[in-house]
Amino acid sequence: MMMDARKFRILQAIIDDYILTAIPVGSRTISKKYEMGLSSATIRNEMSDLEELGYLDQPHVSAGRIPSAKAYRLYVDQLLERGVISTGESESIHHYFDDRTRQMEDVINHAAKVLSGLTHYTSLVLSPKGQELRIRNLQLVPVSSTSALVVIVTDGGIMRDTVVEVGPGLDADALYSISRMLTERLGGRTLSEAQQLLEESSREMQEHHRKLTGNIAQFMGQAGSGSKAKLALGGPSNILNFPEYSDVEKAKGFLSVLETKDKLVDLLEKQGGMAFTVRIGPETGIPELSDCSLVTATYRLGDHNHGTIGVIGPTRMHYGQVLSILNAMGQQLSILLGQNKE
Amino acid sequence: MMMDARKFRILQAIIDDYILTAIPVGSRTISKKYEMGLSSATIRNEMSDLEELGYLDQPHVSAGRIPSAKAYRLYVDQLLERGVISTGESESIHHYFDDRTRQMEDVINHAAKVLSGLTHYTSLVLSPKGQELRIRNLQLVPVSSTSALVVIVTDGGIMRDTVVEVGPGLDADALYSISRMLTERLGGRTLSEAQQLLEESSREMQEHHRKLTGNIAQFMGQAGSGSKAKLALGGPSNILNFPEYSDVEKAKGFLSVLETKDKLVDLLEKQGGMAFTVRIGPETGIPELSDCSLVTATYRLGDHNHGTIGVIGPTRMHYGQVLSILNAMGQQLSILLGQNKE
DNA sequence: TGTTAGCACTCATCAAAGGCGAGTGCTAAC
DNA sequence: GTTAGCACTCGCCTTTGATGAGTGCTAACA
């Protein structure tokens, strides 16, 4: 037995209905509501076939069918092929941002809020990884007599800062001249290049500079490895709007995953630069999310950097709408963060 | 009728039991479990009095009694009077911090996690307000040809940063000399003093400097007013562990409040420097939290600055334990953040 | 006068029973 | 290949009744 066009149409109708109602779909519903021109009995036969093919599950014998993960997969692949992603939403999303928020952290927090507001799902926004960012300016600001704040301005406009120990006897002017020197030498390079360069050159340096440059190099390593990519969450409690999560235990599991952000960051980073990924149920690889779907999209920042935005919701998600919104939001973020570049 | 010692003992027993079990307490339970040396009948009479006095509620006629907000209030006031706060926990809390995390944001995030882990409630940690922080160093770092990053190092070790527009034609060296000048003039002053000073002096300045100083002054106003005090949440989903919140609707309300942090910040700032405050049920002023209690404590940072830590849980909270932990955590935070001061 | 035993009464909770209805699979006719 | 008809299944809801925890009241007791 094979999947034919009619089976597919029926499957699609079932998925659409289930996405809307969250209750198992019966043959009669499909026959009447979706004007197939077929009687419920015929639908039943087809549904029986679809179940055999693994696209439908039956919670119990006298209930309707619900789509399996495999069915959603088919559905989504179809959506992506047909390119349902419209960019018309881009403009409306623009309104949600006001132009003053340019700080990376504010932007991603706000983006997460907008995204969860628009989709009514839980949203995730991951800031770009710093790996490929190029240094534009580096400056040491004295904090105490033995420590200084490192400020790095990159072409992504992202500033990461940390406090490093500096040797004693370096006053503000000394730090400034070091800053100038470092900016001169490292400007235009990526963080990882700069790190390497610093480590090499520190050998030839005087004793009391060596420690400082070593610390800075280490910091660049951290910042560059992207281990500190910031994650913003939007509307975590949105999940409670769905009957799938009216069970408190399940809700707790879901929310717990959100609290330990590490797993989520890993998951989002697996995206690997693809325009869109859709992970359905078990495909997420996190047991607590086994009846969720995670839809992610990439936004670009310059030629080498990208961040990730995503939405988590029940497997019966409005995939088309979500993909479209993610697409629009991604573009908006690229524009917004790109302004720092000029 | 008056509250006497015996009534109080009985009330205390009822509260203790209800904190433990979350089920209405009957007269028999008190009589047997708490060795009052009184029969259940006598307890019943007393309970009836306590209800009349407003300390107990009865969910329905054939159920036991539950403590009212007024009862918790009495209970907590008693606790505070007796000074149940031990400092013994301080040392153990120390272990949860590793010494490298000195950045304000990391510290408060971590503190929130530790706090929710120890108490099993939802925790809140508010960073200190900047109002009284004294400027130690101010520096402008070029970001683009027309904008610069303002970095202010204060005696709290807190760095707040924002991007300001600068007039054209100011290169790195020019910015540095401005920075030096500003540091010279503003060092040792509080943010609000500095703001005022800047605004006054900007009148006498050249045209293209005026805008810059104006922007910096504005930023100081924002930072100083504390509107940007950072709030970290710990274990939001902990609330779901309590049967009071096994109702999904209630849980959603609770979590929604957590998502809009503004209200919480307001609530925490009302603390006003008191060592401890306990808000029970309606005292929180937020409808969604009307059957929660919020316990907050202050930690000091230097002589003029303070932050707030707190715990939200059901009204039947382990007040004694929570107060004790908050006390210890507050001390630890003061020490940890104080290290930036030297 | 305060305390206690006894008793009738209330009412939430739980489990069992039964009706309802949505939905199925199968069969026979078109 | 499609459809109408029908018996059957089984989750869901409501009803019912038993259970038991807990109360308020009264009368007896120290």
Please give a structural write-up:
2 copies of one chain form a homodimer. With about 350 residues, the first copy, chain A, is of the alpha+beta class. Helix content of chain A is about 45%, strand content about 20%. Chain A has a 5-stranded antiparallel sheet with strand order 7-3-10-9-8, sandwiched between helices. The first copy, chain A, has a 3-stranded antiparallel sheet with strand order 4-5-6. In chain A, helix 2 packs across helix 3 and helix 6 packs antiparallel against helix 12. The longest helix of chain A has 20 residues, at about 320-340. The interface of A and B includes residues 143 and 237 of A. The first copy, chain A, binds a DNA duplex (30 and 30 nucleotides) through helix 3.
Q: Care to count the β-strands of chain A?
A: 10
First-last Cα distance of chain A: 58 Å
Number of helices of chain A: 12
Helical percent range of chain A? 40-55%
- Largest sheet of chain A, order of strands side by side? 7-3-10-9-8
Q: Largest interface by residue count? A: A-B, 37 and 37 residues
Oligomer: homodimer
Q: What is the general shape of chain A?
A: elongated
The ordered string of helix (H) and strand (E) elements of chain A is: HHHEEHHHEEEEHHHEHHEEEH
Rg of chain A, rounded, reads 26 Å
- Beta-strand content estimate of chain A: 15-25%
Largest sheet entry of chain A: 5 strands, antiparallel
Mean pLDDT metric of chain A: 84
Could you list the spans of chain A in which at least 5 consecutive residues all have pLDDT below 50? none
- Structural class given helices, strands, pairing of chain A? alpha+beta
